[in-house]
Write a structure and sequence with these properties.
The protein is of the alpha+beta class. The chain has helices at about 5, 10-25, 70-85, 100-125, 125-145, 150-165, 170-185, 185-200, 205-215; strands at about 30, 50, 55-60, 90, 220-225, 230-235. The strands form 2 sheets. Strands 1-3-2 form a 3-stranded mixed sheet. A 3-stranded antiparallel sheet has the order 4-5-6. A hairpin with a 2-residue loop joins β2 and β3. The protein is globular and about 55 Å long. Bound molecules: zinc ion (ZN).
């Protein structure tokens, strides 16, 4: 990462950047992305990252604002894929459509968050409040029926686990329970809770839990294993 950006971060985050770069052999580049400004009213502009076998780009809403919390979140994503070798969900090449790519990217992100957000909150406890705010917004949208049906079902079930296991927030848990009651999804949410909990240490296992419960077509799903040292990506099908 260029010194001009690195020096704006705290020493622990700087050390994490350097550790990821050393272990992956890839420099983390910071890029300004104006489209990230004003995405969610009342919430900080979100960062994002683009990761493949030969690059890691951190997309920031403004080059003048760079703070530890949001950067840590993206670094944890990068660490999983480029250092730990955790696979990313992708659409198998012969089945690719832009819509599926978007759906699977979102699913991948949600599964990753079950692992990285607890680490993020452990390192920077103030991040907890931000995630509570985010899930209050998401669950309110689910309750008000403002989302497509498939998203509503996934987010009701996933959201229940997230607010309980990751956020441990009783107010959001009550909201979540009432959504599940209204939608008649309590028993499916319980199956998800039990299965995903024991699958969190394996991305492949976690994906299978989602595929089974939400009846996704496994032939659409591939897993990308990035090897930054060799600049290669090995794609394997799920089934
Ligand atoms: Zn994320």
């Amino acid at each position: 990462m260029k010194k001009t950006y690195l020096c704006r971060l705290g020493s622990e985050i700087q050390a994490l950047v350097e550790d990821i770069e050393r272990r992956s052999g890839i420099e983390i580049c910071v890029e300004t992305d104006d489209s990230r400004v004003g995405r969610n009213v009342g919430e900080p502009d979100p960062l994002a990252c683009v990761i493949d076998e030969s690059e890691a780009r951190l997309l920031v809403p403004s080059s003048t604002e760079l703070s530890d919390g949001p950067v840590l979140h993206e670094l944890l994503h990068i660490h999983r894929f480029l250092v730990e070798g955790v696979p990313q969900i992708s659409v198998c090449e012969d089945r690719w459509t832009p819509h599926l790519e978007q759906v699977f990217a979102q699913l991948d992100n949600n599964l990753e968050h079950l692992v990285i957000v607890p680490l993020e909150i452990q390192r920077i406890p103030e991040r907890h409040g931000l995630w509570v705010k985010k899930f209050r917004r998401v669950l309110s949208q689910v309750r008000d029926g403002k989302l497509p049906k498939a998203d509503q079902k996934f987010l009701a079930i996933y959201g229940r686990f997230f607010v309980d296991y990751v956020l441990k927030d009783t107010t959001l848990l009550e909201l979540s329970e009432s959504i599940l009651d209204t939608l008649g999804l309590q028993s499916e949410a319980e199956v998800f809770r039990q299965k995903i909990f024991s699958a969190l240490s394996s991305k492949e296992a976690a994906i299978r839990v989602v595929v089974d419960l939400f009846k996704l077509d496994p032939s659409l799903i591939c897993l990308d294993y990035l090897n930054p040292r060799r600049r290669s990506c090995e794609q394997k099908s799920l089934h």
